[in-house]
Amino acid sequence: MMKAVVLPLAVSSVLGFAxxxxxxxxxxxxxxxxxxxxxxxxxxxxxxxxxxxxxGDYSDQVVALTVKTAKAAIEAKGSFSLAIPGGSVVKSLGxxxxxxxxxxxxxxxxxxxxxxxxxxxxxxxxxxxxxxGVPLENVHKVPEDGTPEEVAAQYxxxxxxxxxxxxxxxxxxxxxxxLGTGDDGHCGSLYPGSDxxxxxxxxxxxxxxxxxxxxxxxxxxxxxxxxxxxxVSAAEPKRSLMVKRALTCEYExxxxxxxxxxxxxxxxxVDTDSVAEYESTVVV
Length: 284
What we know:
Helix content is 29%, strand content 25%. The protein has 284 residues and is α/β, with parallel strands linked by helices. An 8-stranded mixed sheet has the order 2-5-6-14-13-10-7-8, with helices on both faces.
């Protein structure tokens, strides 16, 4: 049986952070999460990935990670860049308040968006932007007009010019990216076996997706991996087999995009149901 490395909760609870580098600024205290949460069951490491297992909902911990990352980034460089998808992960940010940190210092980008529909943008407004008083000019909406190729090029150009991202590498680096997953292993809008996931390693930031009536854009795996911190969310029983495949690397080439997220600080939030299949095959 495989063996995972279990981290002592007592030590993590006292520290509440792990070192995360900000390029050009040396090493600073970059947050993971505050572990003083009653429903945290355990945490362990699989390679570079940090896995945190919760008994039930972990929305509060998504907020805790976001707030701690924001405060550390603002203190270190005067701004905080956040990339978000749609769905339940973003709804969790509704737990933030206007005084959680300086909201005027936050810049929001989107991991994916259907062109013209603005679902992710609207979801962000409803979940936390309006409530927390984030300036609308800091919420970077995906262009509404143009072909997928044109829109992807425009959004990539904007990201590559954004001063709130670390531009020192080949791929711009956001402070925190929040990522949802599917039971098929997709991550963001990168699906198993798709042209988009196969573009990994090509140095692209934003990818066009043209599926006939559905035209959209999505950030690349290269962009996800360039993030300072990446949170991968995978809850519920239906994701149990996917979590096992991702953490044991038992999948065909390009068959589990979620498994390929490899940021400097990659954290998986799972629950007791979604980690069950994995725990049946390893010693945790």
